[in-house]
Amino acid sequence: MSSPAHEHSDHAGHNHLAEEERYWRDTAPAHERDWRETKSHLVRGLQRLLLSGPVEGNVLEIGAGLGWASAILKQHKPAATVTATDVSPSVFRLATATYADIGARPDHAGACDMANLPFADETFDLVFGIAVLHHAGDVSAVMREVKRVLKPGGRYFGMDEFAAAPALRGFWRDSRLSPFARRHGELGVKEAVYTLREWRRQVAGCGFSEATVRLNRDWRLKRSESGRRWYFLLTAPLPEALFAHLLGASVVIAARK
């Protein structure tokens, strides 16, 4: 018989899966249609931080959403065998339009929970995820599962995971002015908010031979609206220890098995 804690975990996981499926089935067709505009900074980040180097062998994307990142990776690295996954089955019906728009598509795609990947041990040379880990119920559990399916020496790349300043964590998590709180309240999508220290702690204990979590402060990889690029340009001289206590910024995660 399951313990109460296990039953609570299963219930929370079931609710998360239901929320994601409801979002991609009912809300995303209108909310996500302008992905080239809303994700343009992420496309630049993918190209600059990952695709500018070697990518080969078996590649897995977790939390692929509309599949634009897997399709762009396949377009740039056609020799790689790319598998796109997301928790919602409905998302793959929407992804076909994305693939047509880009002119490339992953070799394989399917629905699964990123904390319970349906792949054998040591299957992939690279696993990557963009703005996905903060949707997880347990970041460390996902990273341990990523490590399991990576080949020895295989690596994980993640980007656009928000790290809040410690003093502002409550604001970003709960305030009606916060885009994370609004997205959770209005769209029903889990939006966890962590500090840089919390991100590092969650990744560090997963058994990778090396792992780094750093703030992405490159103004060229930021959205242009609301003066965001100017903010990162003007704060560039500040040391990370000081910058981490300002408004917050996304992080880049790199780990190797």
Describe this structure in words.
By secondary structure, the protein is of the alpha/beta class. The protein has a single domain, classed as Vaccinia Virus protein VP39 (Rossmann fold), CATH 3.40.50.150. About 40% of the residues lie in helices and about 20% in strands. Strands 1, 2, 3, 4, 5, 6, 7 and 8 form an 8-stranded mixed beta sheet that branches. Strand 4, helix 6 (about 140-150) and strand 5 form a beta-alpha-beta unit. Helix 4 (about 70-75) runs parallel beside helix 5. Residues about 1-10 have low confidence and may be disordered.
Question: What's the short version?
Answer:
42% of the residues lie in helices and 21% in strands. With 257 residues, the protein is of the alpha/beta class.
- Give the N-to-C terminal Cα separation: 35 Å
CATH class: Alpha Beta
Structural class: alpha/beta
The overall pLDDT average reads 87
Main β sheet profile: 8 strands, mixed
| Helix fraction bin | 40-55%
CATH topology: Rossmann fold
Q: Treating each run of at least 4 consecutive H or I residues as one helix, how many helices?
A: 11
Q: What is the name of the CATH architecture?
A: 3-Layer(aba) Sandwich
Radius of gyration: 18 Å
CATH superfamily heading: Vaccinia Virus protein VP39
Number of domains: 1
Low-confidence stretches: 1-12
- Approximate strand percentage: 15-25%
Silhouette: globular
